[in-house]
Write a structure and sequence with these properties.
alpha/beta
């Protein structure tokens, strides 16, 4: 029997999430790829930068757009360790990302399969393909460890 390994972009996103936790930030990492090549990556930095919009997804999307010299990322994919919130889902829509892969669901703050379900709204300008649960166990464990250490 062959063991299944996580796709490299999700492995990298999980490494970034770990770095985020070590920096005292909520452990979320994100990677933007195009044609299998990493274009940009980031982890959460709201506390460090005093910027409530400095979520991993937002930073990775901004960096990818800058690297490609365009605001539309139509041929790109976002790999992220936690279900995007409403703010990040909005950025995904405006960037026109083709696909979103996320690890752990977020019943409290997520806005893809929970809460606002942004991509399902009639007003949604673009609907990326969404794949959930890739690396879920590792991402969820990182989050549990992070929050249990602070309680």
């Amino acid at each position: 029997m062959t063991s299944w390994t996580l796709p490299q972009p999700m492995q990298r996103a999980l490494e970034l999430a770990q770095a985020s936790a070590q920096a005292g930030e909520v452990p979320v990492g994100a990677v933007v790829t195009r044609g299998g090549e990493v274009i940009a990556e980031a982890h959460n930095t709201p506390r460090k930068t005093c910027d409530p919009t400095a979520h991993a997804e937002m930073l990775a999307i901004r960096r990818a757009a800058q690297a490609l010299g365009q605001e539309r990322l139509t041929e790109c994919e976002l790999w992220v360790t936690l279900e995007p919130c409403a703010m990040c889902a909005g950025a995904i829509i405006h960037a026109r990302l083709a696909r979103v892969y996320y690890a752990a669901s977020d019943p409290k703050g997520g806005a893809v399969e929970h809460g606002a379900r942004v991509f399902e709204q009639a007003q949604c300008l673009h609907r990326p393909e969404v794949y959930a649960g890739i690396g879920e166990a590792k991402a969820a464990a990182l989050l549990r460890e992070f929050f249990s250490a602070r309680r």
